[in-house]
């Protein structure tokens, strides 16, 4: 059992780790970072080193960075796919548009 297991930053971090909806991920990461900042500020005013919790916070921050990087990769991939789909749709309707343009120019 740890001294910090009931701290809000830990619960928020755990929620971010298991979040499956990409739309919610960045909000969970941001909330965790905010709680960590508040906790670090509080720890600075509490006597003692709090080495174990500070180490856990450092580990958490590294993992949050990895989650953010993964989230950015996922978002970039989604954008790339959306652009590819849009391009395919444009290519599929281009002949019809070209035909209408040619018909108007001739008529």
Describe what you observe in this structure.
The chain has helices at residues 8-18, 22-45, 51-106. Helix content is 85%, strand content 0%. Helix 1 (8-18) packs antiparallel against helix 2. The mean pLDDT is 94. The protein is rod-shaped. It is an all-alpha fold and 107 residues long. The relative contact order is 0.11. The protein starts with 7 loop residues before the first helix and ends with a helix. The longest helix has 56 residues, at 51-106. It has a domain at 8-78. It contains three helices and no strands.
Biggest sheet statistics: none
Mean pLDDT across all amino acids: 94
Radius of gyration: 25 Å
Q: Give the distance, in angstroms, between the N- and C-terminal Cα atoms.
A: 83 Å
Number of helices: 3
According to DSSP, the number of beta strands is: 0
Percent strand equals under 5%
Backbone structural class: mainly alpha
Shape: rod-shaped
Structure keywords:
107 residues; mainly alpha; 3 helices; 0% strand; rod-shaped
Q: In short, what is this structure?
A:
With 107 residues, the protein is mostly helical. It contains three helices and no strands.
Strand and helix map with partners:
Blueprint: H1 8-18, H2 22-45, H3 51-106
Helix pairs in contact: 1-2, 1-3, 2-3
């Amino acid at each position: 059992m740890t001294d910090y297991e009931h701290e809000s930053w830990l619960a928020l971090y755990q929620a971010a780790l298991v979040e499956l909806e990409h739309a919610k991920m960045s909000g969970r990461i941001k909330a965790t970072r905010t709680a960590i900042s508040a906790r670090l500020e509080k720890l600075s005013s509490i006597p003692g080193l709090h080495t174990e919790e500070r180490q856990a916070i450092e580990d958490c921050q590294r993992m949050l960075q990895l989650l953010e990087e993964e989230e950015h990769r996922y978002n970039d991939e989604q954008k790339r796919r959306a652009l590819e789909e849009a391009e395919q749709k444009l290519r599929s309707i281009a002949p019809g548009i070209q035909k209408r343009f040619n018909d108007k120019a001739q008529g």
